[in-house]
Input
Amino acid sequence: EIVLTQSPVTLSLSPGERATLSCRASQSVSSYLAWYQQKPGQAPRLLIYDASNRATGIPARFSGSGSGTDFTLTISRLEPEDFAVYYCQQRNNWPSFTFGGGTKVEIK
Amino acid sequence: QVQLVESGGGLVQPGGSLRLSCAASGLTVSSNYMTWVRQAPGKGLEWVSYISSSGGSILYADSVKGRFTISRDNAKNSLYLQMNSLRAEDTAVYYCARARWLNYWGQGTLVTVSS
Output
């Protein structure tokens, strides 16, 4: 099973700051990686797929990069609504897939 | 407008059974890969099961294999998860979602396994 490790576990930032979230895979997942945002009491929302493609309706301040085993989600300037938990997900061994443990972006 | 609506969750004793439903609108279940994902209280996301668009390919996570069964009813445009021999560790919010990238999710239904 491919294990995804997200870091940091918690990121404390202020609105307007840049957020950089990391996801590392235990083996190569090529570009088969996605990022999701989840707010309390809500289902996750797809932000980025295939490592760097924004999903429909996702603001340009969200960007993804990486391939192989190391991936990054960047939020260029945090808006108040961006404080949430973020998960990465790989589907290299589709149809099964795994999620990372999550990074919580909290207000400093 | 795609909408997925789960139902069927609730409180069940260990060893009991539940059947979850996911009613779809704006999306044809039989034309899409569909999946179930769960989230234990305060924890991360865990993939549970998958069914292909043809229905010919079905897969389960090791944690539920032999106990859970995924199925669908094309006439009702619905997805199901039959859960048997439930354990405390199956307590979670269960989401149905369209795969491969999970761009459509339901709101989730809570399953609590406790005596």
Observations:
- Chain A touches chain B through 23 residues (CB under 8 Å).
- The mean pLDDT of chain A is 96.
- Chain A has no helices and eleven strands.
